[in-house]
Amino acid sequence: MSISLHNVKRKLIGEPFPNHLEIHERLDKMRALAVFASDPISSNAYATEAIMSVLLLIGAGALRFTLPLALAVAGLVLLVIFSYIQTILHYPDGGGAYTVTKDNLGETPSLFAGAALLTDYILTVSVSVAAGIRAITSAQPMLRPYAIPLALLAILILTWINLRGVRESGTIFAIPTYLFVVGVLLTVFISLIRITGFFGASHPVPITPEEIAGNGQTITTFLFLWLLLRAFAAGTTALTGIEAISNGVQAFKPPEAKNAAKTMVIMGIIAMSLFIGITFVVSQLHLIPNEHESILSQMARTVTNGMPGGIILYYWVQIFTMLILILAANTGYQDFPRLSSFLAKDGYLPRWMQNRGDRLVYNGGIVTLAIIASLVIIVFRADEIAMLPLYALGVMLSFSLSQFGMFKLMGRIAHLKPGETLKTHVTTIHYEKGTRWKRALNGIGSAVTFIVLLILIATKFVEGAWIIILAVPLLVFAFRTIKHHYNHVAKDLSMQNFDPSQLRDIANIAIVPISDIHRGTSRALRYACRLSDHVEALYISTSEASKKRIQEKWARYPELTEGVQLNIIDYEYRDILTPLEAYIAYVAEDVYPGRLITVVIPEFVPERFSARFLHNQTATLLRLRLKAHDNVVIIDVPYLIRETREAGSKKQNAEREEQAARDNA
Amino acid sequence: MRNQEEKALTAVCPECKKGIQFHAAPRPYHLFLCPHCETMLLVTAVSPLQVDWAFEEPGKPIPHRGDWRLEIRNWGNLQAPNL
Questions:
Q1: Among A68-77, A288-297, A655-664, which is the least confidently predicted range?
Q2: Pick from A574, A591, A661: CB nearest B46
Q3: In sequence order, which residues have a C-beta less than 8 Å from that of residue A186 and are 6 or more positions away?
Q4: What is the ipTM of this complex?
Q5: Which of A364, A469, A564, A651 is deepest in the core (most CB within 10 A)?
Q6: How far apart (Å, rounded) are the C-alpha atoms in residues B73 and A49?
Q7: Cα–Cα distance between A594 and A597 in angstroms, integer?
Q8: Which of A271, A372, A354 is closest to A95 using CA atoms?
Q9: pLDDT greater than 90 at residue A235
Q10: What is the pLDDT of residue A244?
Q11: Quick one: closest CA in B to A518, which residue?
Q12: Are A237 and A50 within 8 A, CB to CB?
């Protein structure tokens, strides 16, 4: 098998899937959970620590607020999950916050939701990969100078796996995700047994609060409340990725909405069990965040210390924490391409982003995400701490808008009588019970997430949040510009009020730019002669010698050149495209204004793909330039250069060539 | 005898019209430069030996220099198509 781009692609990506396998490629709940929930589950590796780090600014005593704040965050998570389950059930075609906002709040808010989520998915990939690479370079400091190439390599691998298909990536990513969940749950379970002293287990050795030095400062009530709010906002990093399932409802096996909603519930239970479990144990053990060791690592070490086989559990938790931090990026890989396909379908992103590739995944979105996330990695030098202030803002904005959208939708449903249905722009709603309390929960969720958004902006603005505040409106502007372009194209191509007499007349002329007389150009000349009575061969002569040569060759083949006007333009410079374009434009605009002229471009095409880069530079560029001219029709006349290698041995070929030359002579 | 062999291995450059002496019979469709004028030539027949210009293909064009609309006015020899 020869090495070609096609073969390499087949080896890397796999054989293309036919359309009917789309249903086979869909995810069962087990795989879907791993694919969509890697981000919210991985948040448990740092969410508790995020709360504690802010509380420490108040003083060590304030750490007692960790559990209540974690419970408040968990409450918010439940609200958001509830809202997104409603979203999934009411918008079973997917699209999440973007679709809900579009349907209930209008175009501009939906574009803000879309832009906010897209930026956050990019950051999910960059931050997760950078965090995972930091875990590796922390263990092996000699790799620290290679953090950027390693992060780019990780993005490349993730991109490759995702391009192979949703089901395959789900299978690969499921193992570390579930092993992380099992490892941490086991650690929490053992902690609870040891803390409560069940089965006569010994209590792990805690760090007592007396050992913690307070900062000794007294703070005002306002500052205290502000820091509490900041700690709460920091804990909301546990919310990132929760919305992922709502975007990808159609990735589930049927019944899609039901399976997606169930997976959302399971995800919520797992993520919150881990979050509250870790926070409870950490609070009981009075652990304190420090720069050198994560809270999760401290918890696992303290709990497994002195326990038979404890070291295995400790390393299990550590290794799979590192892996899940990298795999959290997969949530971005799942949702960025899906969300872009929704935006592309509505004309806000390039059309090619809505197409599925060979393996039924949105290739365009996956590759675009990989490129932008790689650029972010390079710009921030793979430093996730520097990227963190930018993170979570987009998600919170989309949560707030989405829940407000659901609040409005519930209001519309409340007006329906039993048996009544109503078609919105996107979905069909029916009468349902309990709309008042559903509406209230969505309203509270929207308000709380909006407050969290304001806190995040206020606390992280200087550290980098301003970039997102600037980027989101710019993205919205870009969406609108793309849409405007598509609208303009649609209007221009519309057959409305079409009058055939408006069509341009076709001028009786065919221009054939030539560089020589050979089999390639002779075919183009013959072709042009069938199109028009007036054929001109256009030759740019840069020297007297070349002019003489073409004239001599032209005279050699009268049966080919008879009736064709050889137009030689003397030109003293090397940019031969200029006179070619100039002459063709002159003929098109001045000689035949308002009519279509034909340019026949001879092109010889080597059979071998790699050899094609050796030829046709002028033809390719001329074609590009001529496309800017409204009334020039370009026709390519290819001449295939056959390779003789496969037809026989070198000796046989040489004999054949010799015979051919004798025949010619 | 030797003269006949030499004659059989001689071709005329179509560019400079000078004779080109080969030391051995060239392969058909062999590309070479004329030793006199450095024009790229092609062996089109071996018996009798004949050479011709090789195919011409412009290299990668250099970038646009300026406004071609201004330059076209200076083309005195332009043969515009007959209407």
A1: A655-664
A2: A661
A3: A313
A4: 0.74
A5: A364
A6: 75
A7: 10
A8: A354
A9: no
A10: 85
A11: B55
A12: yes
Strand partners of residue A512: A537
Alpha-carbon torsion angle A259, A261, A265, A267, nearest 10: 70
| Secondary structure class of A638 (helix, strand, coil) | strand
Which residues, 6+ apart, have CB-to-CB distance to A20 below 8 Å? none
Q: Give the closest of A534, A536, A621 to B61, CB-based.
A: A621
What is the mean pLDDT of the segment spanning A71-88? 91
What's the farthest any 2 CA atoms get from each other in chain A? Answer: 108
CA of A481: how far to CAs of A349, A485, A491, in Å? Answer: 9, 6, 15
Judged against a pLDDT cut of 90, whether residue A171 lies above it is answered with: no
The DSSP code sequence of A282-330 is HHHHT----SSS-HHHHHHHHHHTTSTTHHHHHHHHHHHHHHHHHHTHH
Q: Give dist(CA A485, CA A477) in Å, integer.
A: 12
Locate tokens 């003929």: which residue? Answer: A587
Cα separation, A267 vs A40, in Å, equals 8
How far from each other are the two terminal CA atoms of chain A, in whole angstroms?
A: 39
What is the separation of C-alpha A332 from the centre of its chain, rounded to a whole number of angstroms?
7
CB nearest B64 (choices: A552, A578, A658): A578
Supply the mean pLDDT for chain A: 86
How many Å apart are CA B71 and CA A575, to the nearest integer? 12
Distance (Å, rounded) from C-alpha B11 to C-alpha B43? 9
Closest to A251 (Cα-Cα) out of A18, A34, A444? A34
Give the residue among A499, A445, A299, A471 at the shortest CA–CA distance from A379.
A471
Q: How far is CA A467 from CA A23, A180, A460, A471, A644, in A?
A: 40, 33, 10, 6, 59
d(CA A117, CA A125): 12
| The two structure tokens encoding residue B7 | 């004659």
> What is the pLDDT, as a whole number, of residue A200?
59
User: Which residues are registered as beta bridge partners of A541?
Assistant: A570
Query: Does residue A382 surpass a pLDDT of 70?
Result: yes
d(CA A312, CA A497): 76
What residues of chain A have any CB closer than 8 angstroms to a CB in chain B?
509, 515-516, 518, 534, 536, 545-546, 549, 552-553, 565, 567, 569-570, 573-579, 581-583, 585-587, 591, 615, 617-618, 621, 654, 657-658, 660-662, 664-665
Residue from B68, B74, B78 whose CB has the most chain A CBs within 10 Å, to mutate: B68
Question: Which residues, 6+ apart, have CB-to-CB distance to A305 below 8 Å?
Answer: A204, A205
Distance, CA of A395 to CA of A449 (rounded, Å):
9
Compute the distance between CA of residue A647 and CA of residue A209 in angstroms, rounded to an integer.
Answer: 85
Distance CA A128, CA A46 (A): 12
pLDDT at position B29 over 50:
yes
